[in-house]
TrEMBL record:
The active site is at residues 78, 182, 184. It comes from the Bacteria. Pathway: Amino-acid biosynthesis; L-histidine biosynthesis; L-histidine from 5-phospho-alpha-D-ribose 1-diphosphate: step 5/9. Residues 4-197 form the Glutamine amidotransferase domain. One of its GO terms (molecular function) is lyase activity. GO terms for cellular component: cytoplasm. It is found in: Cytoplasm. Its EC number is 4.3.2.10, 3.5.1.2. IGPS catalyzes the conversion of PRFAR and glutamine to IGP, AICAR and glutamate. The HisH subunit catalyzes the hydrolysis of glutamine to glutamate and ammonia as part of the synthesis of IGP and AICAR. The resulting ammonia molecule is channeled to the active site of HisF. The keyword NADP does not apply. Keywords: Amino-acid biosynthesis, Cytoplasm, Glutamine amidotransferase, Glycosyltransferase, Histidine biosynthesis, Hydrolase, Lyase, Transferase. This is Imidazole glycerol phosphate synthase subunit HisH. It catalyses: L-glutamine + H2O = L-glutamate + NH4(+); 5-[(5-phospho-1-deoxy-D-ribulos-1-ylimino)methylamino]-1-(5-phospho-beta-D-ribosyl)imidazole-4-carboxamide + L-glutamine = D-erythro-1-(imidazol-4-yl)glycerol 3-phosphate + 5-amino-1-(5-phospho-beta-D-ribosyl)imidazole-4-carboxamide + L-glutamate + H(+).
Length: 208
Protein backbone atom coordinates (compact mmCIF):
# COMPACT_ATOMS: atom_id res chain seq x y z
CA UNK A 1 0.00 0.00 0.00
CA UNK A 2 1.12 3.53 -0.83
CA UNK A 3 0.29 5.88 2.03
CA UNK A 4 -0.84 9.42 1.12
CA UNK A 5 -0.28 11.41 4.29
CA UNK A 6 -3.24 13.48 5.47
CA UNK A 7 -2.17 16.32 7.79
CA UNK A 8 -5.01 18.64 6.89
CA UNK A 9 -3.45 20.46 3.92
CA UNK A 10 -3.84 19.35 0.34
CA UNK A 11 -6.11 17.86 -2.31
CA UNK A 12 -5.45 14.27 -1.39
CA UNK A 13 -8.32 12.71 -3.31
CA UNK A 14 -6.88 13.68 -6.69
CA UNK A 15 -3.58 12.01 -5.79
CA UNK A 16 -5.34 8.87 -4.61
CA UNK A 17 -7.57 8.74 -7.70
CA UNK A 18 -4.53 9.02 -9.96
CA UNK A 19 -2.80 6.07 -8.30
CA UNK A 20 -6.02 4.03 -8.36
CA UNK A 21 -6.46 4.80 -12.06
CA UNK A 22 -2.94 3.48 -12.63
CA UNK A 23 -3.70 0.25 -10.76
CA UNK A 24 -1.81 0.92 -7.54
CA UNK A 25 -3.31 0.57 -4.09
CA UNK A 26 -3.06 3.95 -2.37
CA UNK A 27 -4.80 5.07 0.80
CA UNK A 28 -5.17 8.42 2.51
CA UNK A 29 -3.81 7.91 6.03
CA UNK A 30 -3.50 10.05 9.13
CA UNK A 31 -2.14 7.50 11.59
CA UNK A 32 1.51 6.91 12.42
CA UNK A 33 1.00 3.12 12.36
CA UNK A 34 -0.30 3.15 8.77
CA UNK A 35 2.64 5.23 7.56
CA UNK A 36 4.96 2.69 9.17
CA UNK A 37 3.21 -0.23 7.43
CA UNK A 38 3.16 1.35 3.98
CA UNK A 39 5.48 0.22 1.18
CA UNK A 40 5.82 3.79 -0.09
CA UNK A 41 4.81 7.21 1.21
CA UNK A 42 3.49 10.33 -0.54
CA UNK A 43 3.58 13.73 1.19
CA UNK A 44 1.36 16.17 -0.75
CA UNK A 45 0.45 19.65 0.40
CA UNK A 46 -0.67 23.17 -0.41
CA UNK A 47 -0.66 26.23 1.82
CA UNK A 48 1.53 27.72 4.53
CA UNK A 49 4.87 26.07 5.39
CA UNK A 50 4.68 26.76 9.12
CA UNK A 51 1.09 25.58 9.39
CA UNK A 52 2.06 22.35 7.66
CA UNK A 53 4.89 21.70 10.12
CA UNK A 54 2.59 22.49 13.05
CA UNK A 55 -0.14 20.19 11.73
CA UNK A 56 2.24 17.28 11.15
CA UNK A 57 3.64 17.59 14.65
CA UNK A 58 0.29 18.11 16.37
CA UNK A 59 -1.04 14.94 14.73
CA UNK A 60 1.96 12.91 15.86
CA UNK A 61 3.16 12.16 12.34
CA UNK A 62 6.58 13.86 12.30
CA UNK A 63 8.68 10.88 13.39
CA UNK A 64 6.83 8.42 11.15
CA UNK A 65 7.47 10.65 8.13
CA UNK A 66 11.10 11.12 9.16
CA UNK A 67 11.53 7.34 9.43
CA UNK A 68 9.88 6.81 6.04
CA UNK A 69 12.27 9.33 4.46
CA UNK A 70 15.15 7.20 5.70
CA UNK A 71 13.94 3.83 4.50
CA UNK A 72 11.08 3.79 1.95
CA UNK A 73 10.31 5.12 -1.52
CA UNK A 74 9.09 8.62 -0.77
CA UNK A 75 7.34 11.18 -2.97
CA UNK A 76 6.89 14.86 -2.04
CA UNK A 77 4.47 17.06 -4.00
CA UNK A 78 4.39 20.88 -3.98
CA UNK A 79 4.46 21.96 -0.30
CA UNK A 80 5.41 18.35 0.41
CA UNK A 81 8.63 18.96 -1.53
CA UNK A 82 9.36 22.18 0.36
CA UNK A 83 8.94 20.43 3.70
CA UNK A 84 11.85 18.13 2.86
CA UNK A 85 14.25 21.09 2.94
CA UNK A 86 15.66 23.14 5.80
CA UNK A 87 12.92 25.72 5.70
CA UNK A 88 11.14 28.59 3.98
CA UNK A 89 11.19 32.33 4.46
CA UNK A 90 7.41 32.05 4.62
CA UNK A 91 7.77 30.64 8.16
CA UNK A 92 11.42 31.02 9.21
CA UNK A 93 10.75 29.83 12.75
CA UNK A 94 9.60 26.40 11.51
CA UNK A 95 12.37 24.05 10.29
CA UNK A 96 11.54 21.38 7.74
CA UNK A 97 12.76 17.79 7.66
CA UNK A 98 16.18 18.94 6.35
CA UNK A 99 16.69 15.96 4.05
CA UNK A 100 17.99 18.49 1.52
CA UNK A 101 19.92 21.71 2.13
CA UNK A 102 18.33 25.00 1.18
CA UNK A 103 15.51 27.40 1.98
CA UNK A 104 12.61 28.52 -0.18
CA UNK A 105 12.14 32.19 -0.97
CA UNK A 106 9.22 34.28 -2.24
CA UNK A 107 9.04 35.20 -5.91
CA UNK A 108 9.85 38.88 -6.33
CA UNK A 109 7.11 41.47 -6.75
CA UNK A 110 7.66 42.04 -10.46
CA UNK A 111 6.02 38.73 -11.39
CA UNK A 112 2.53 37.41 -10.70
CA UNK A 113 2.36 35.42 -7.47
CA UNK A 114 1.52 32.65 -7.08
CA UNK A 115 3.23 31.09 -10.06
CA UNK A 116 0.19 29.26 -11.37
CA UNK A 117 -0.36 27.24 -14.51
CA UNK A 118 1.61 25.17 -16.98
CA UNK A 119 5.35 25.60 -17.27
CA UNK A 120 8.16 23.61 -18.82
CA UNK A 121 10.51 21.46 -16.75
CA UNK A 122 13.88 20.41 -18.09
CA UNK A 123 15.21 17.18 -16.63
CA UNK A 124 18.97 17.48 -16.14
CA UNK A 125 19.76 13.85 -15.32
CA UNK A 126 18.34 10.40 -15.80
CA UNK A 127 16.10 9.02 -13.10
CA UNK A 128 13.68 6.08 -12.77
CA UNK A 129 11.00 8.57 -11.72
CA UNK A 130 11.27 10.24 -15.14
CA UNK A 131 11.26 7.08 -17.27
CA UNK A 132 9.24 7.58 -20.43
CA UNK A 133 9.43 11.38 -20.32
CA UNK A 134 11.27 13.63 -22.73
CA UNK A 135 14.09 15.86 -21.60
CA UNK A 136 11.64 18.74 -21.36
CA UNK A 137 7.93 18.47 -20.48
CA UNK A 138 5.13 20.74 -19.28
CA UNK A 139 3.59 20.38 -15.81
CA UNK A 140 1.08 22.27 -13.68
CA UNK A 141 2.39 24.57 -10.91
CA UNK A 142 0.77 26.50 -8.04
CA UNK A 143 3.32 28.04 -5.66
CA UNK A 144 4.60 31.34 -4.31
CA UNK A 145 7.93 30.19 -2.84
CA UNK A 146 10.75 28.58 -4.79
CA UNK A 147 14.24 27.13 -4.48
CA UNK A 148 16.78 28.97 -6.68
CA UNK A 149 18.95 26.83 -8.92
CA UNK A 150 22.30 27.21 -7.17
CA UNK A 151 25.47 25.28 -7.93
CA UNK A 152 25.57 23.66 -4.50
CA UNK A 153 22.15 22.11 -5.12
CA UNK A 154 23.25 20.33 -8.31
CA UNK A 155 23.84 16.91 -6.67
CA UNK A 156 20.14 16.45 -5.91
CA UNK A 157 18.54 18.65 -8.59
CA UNK A 158 16.55 16.59 -11.09
CA UNK A 159 14.43 19.15 -12.95
CA UNK A 160 14.72 22.88 -13.62
CA UNK A 161 12.03 25.39 -14.52
CA UNK A 162 12.02 29.14 -15.08
CA UNK A 163 9.76 31.87 -13.74
CA UNK A 164 11.61 35.15 -13.45
CA UNK A 165 14.72 33.03 -12.82
CA UNK A 166 15.75 29.40 -12.85
CA UNK A 167 14.41 27.36 -9.97
CA UNK A 168 14.50 23.72 -8.97
CA UNK A 169 11.28 21.97 -9.92
CA UNK A 170 12.26 18.38 -9.08
CA UNK A 171 14.76 16.69 -6.78
CA UNK A 172 15.89 13.19 -5.96
CA UNK A 173 18.25 11.50 -3.56
CA UNK A 174 18.34 7.71 -3.24
CA UNK A 175 14.78 6.72 -2.19
CA UNK A 176 13.38 10.27 -2.16
CA UNK A 177 11.72 12.03 -5.11
CA UNK A 178 9.94 15.38 -4.94
CA UNK A 179 8.29 17.83 -7.32
CA UNK A 180 7.31 21.48 -6.96
CA UNK A 181 4.58 20.94 -9.57
CA UNK A 182 1.49 18.75 -9.22
CA UNK A 183 1.84 15.47 -11.15
CA UNK A 184 -1.78 14.58 -10.33
CA UNK A 185 -2.93 17.75 -12.18
CA UNK A 186 -0.51 17.45 -15.10
CA UNK A 187 -2.28 15.08 -17.48
CA UNK A 188 -0.55 12.09 -19.03
CA UNK A 189 2.97 13.29 -18.23
CA UNK A 190 2.12 13.70 -14.57
CA UNK A 191 0.47 10.29 -14.49
CA UNK A 192 3.66 8.84 -15.92
CA UNK A 193 5.58 10.17 -12.93
CA UNK A 194 3.09 8.62 -10.52
CA UNK A 195 3.20 5.34 -12.44
CA UNK A 196 6.99 5.36 -12.22
CA UNK A 197 6.78 5.94 -8.48
CA UNK A 198 4.36 3.05 -8.15
CA UNK A 199 6.78 0.80 -10.01
CA UNK A 200 9.63 1.93 -7.78
CA UNK A 201 7.52 1.02 -4.76
CA UNK A 202 6.33 -2.34 -6.01
CA UNK A 203 8.91 -3.32 -8.59
CA UNK A 204 7.55 -4.12 -12.02
CA UNK A 205 4.67 -6.18 -10.61
CA UNK A 206 1.96 -3.53 -10.48
CA UNK A 207 1.23 -3.04 -6.83
CA UNK A 208 -2.07 -4.49 -5.90
Amino acid sequence: MIAIVDYGMGNLMSVQKAFTHLGFEARIVSEESKIKKAKGVVLPGVGNFGQAVANIKSRGLWQAIKDALAEKPFLGICLGMQLLFEGSEESPEFPGFSKFPGRFILFKSDVKVPHMGWNSVRFIKNSPIANGLDGEEFFYFVHSYYLPFLREYTPFALGISNYQEKFIAAVESENIFAFQFHPEKSGKKGLKILENFGRIVYGNNCGH
